[in-house]
Structures are given as C-alpha cells and as structure tokens.
C-alpha cells in the first residue's frame, strides 16, 4: 500500500507527518512498527515522503498491480475560478506538478485496486473517468479547501475499516467491525465522521462501491 503524504506539518491538530505515519502503522508493539494489523492481513505499508520525488513516486505506485495508492497532500487551486483544483503538487508549488488532464490519464491506466486522492478539491481534478480502478476523491465543499489533518484522519478511518477495524474512543483502530472487512461504501460512510460540521466529504467517483477489497 503506497502512501504519498504531504511534507508539511499537519497543523490544526498539532501532529506531524511522522506522528501520522506512526499512528497509521497501528503496530501491536510500538517497538516493532512493522508488526500489527496490516501485517496480519499480509499488507505491506510503504510511505513516500520526499516531496521532490513525489510525482515519480505517485506515477510508479499507480502502476503496481493490486496496490492501494493514497495521495495525502497539496493541490494547486485556481484563485480566479472559485478555487477549483488545477492538479496535484506534492511540493506545494503554485503550479500543478500533475495537471488534471495528466492525472486523469494516469488514473485511467492504473493497475492499482484502489486510489484515494486526499487533496483540496480533488473531485474537480479527477473529473469523470471511463476506466481504471475505484477512485476516492475529496469533495471540498463550497470553498474548495480541506485541511490536511481532516483528510489524513479520514484516510485512516476508511482504510482501517476495509480490514475490519473501527477507531475506539481514543482514536485508535482497536474495535473490531461487526461486519468484518468492510465494503468501499461502508468505509466511505465511516470516514464522514472526520468531516463533521463541514460540507466536505470523501466521494467514490469511479468503480463499484459494493465490493470488499479484502473479502
């Protein structure tokens, strides 16, 4: 599962990129971070955090057969067009490093089993696809902007539920999901809690939401 997170501190909840990575690993023992809920499922986690190579890392990840690819980071917004996304920018540049048209081509040809684009107004960036794997995007509401910590937490909630775990009262993935491994649609519904009080949300814009990636 390749994950390309932003190189910037998360901000509104006071945790860093490394804090997110440590939490997302969900280890049985913090001293052994590679052994935990993901390893039990036979899933290898890979984090790509070098923003300078973010474009290449993302492109290569999309070509890995069966991978779940997650982009958590920045997009470039058009200030003259209601802040709609112009594409992705791992380095936080003022121009799109992966313009919308390029992103759509990459996704349409992807060999991954699922792609999540957790970036401001990625719904506009992805648009409508006729091919490719299931795609989850960020609907950033009327202002086209969503804080990275909200999206990062939603990614965690979504993916934990796919392998059958809900977050407990402390925010940790320790409560077994009664239905076992969740469908994409069930995981989407669970992720909505991370956007409580906002008109932002994750949306499935391509693919079948009724499937379980881990049956």
Brief account:
By secondary structure, the chain is α/β, with parallel strands linked by helices. It is built from seven helices and eleven strands. It has helices at residues 17-25, 37-40, 54-62, 100-108, 122-126, 148-162, 184-191, and strands at 2-5, 46-47, 68-72, 75-77, 85-88, 98-99, 114-118, 135-139, 165-166, 175-176, 201-206.
Major sheet characteristics:
6 strands, mixed
For the largest sheet, list the strands in their spatial order.
2-1-3-7-8-11
CATH topology-level fold name: Rossmann fold
How many strands in all? 11
* Cα-based radius of gyration, to the nearest Å: 16 Å
Rough outline? globular
CATH architecture descriptor: 3-Layer(aba) Sandwich
Overall average residue pLDDT = 92
- Number of discrete domains: 1
Distance between the termini: 17 Å
* Number of contiguous helices: 7
Percent of residues in β-strands: 15-25%
CATH class categorisation: Alpha Beta
Please identify the structural class as seen in this structure. Answer: alpha/beta
Helix coverage percent = 25-40%
Describe the structure.
- This protein has a single domain, classed as Rossmann fold (3-Layer(aba) Sandwich), CATH 3.40.50.
- It is built from 7 helices and 11 strands.
- Helix 6 (148-162) packs antiparallel against helix 7 (184-191).
- It has a 6-stranded mixed beta sheet with strand order 2-1-3-7-8-11, sandwiched between helices.
- 27% of the residues lie in helices and 19% in strands.
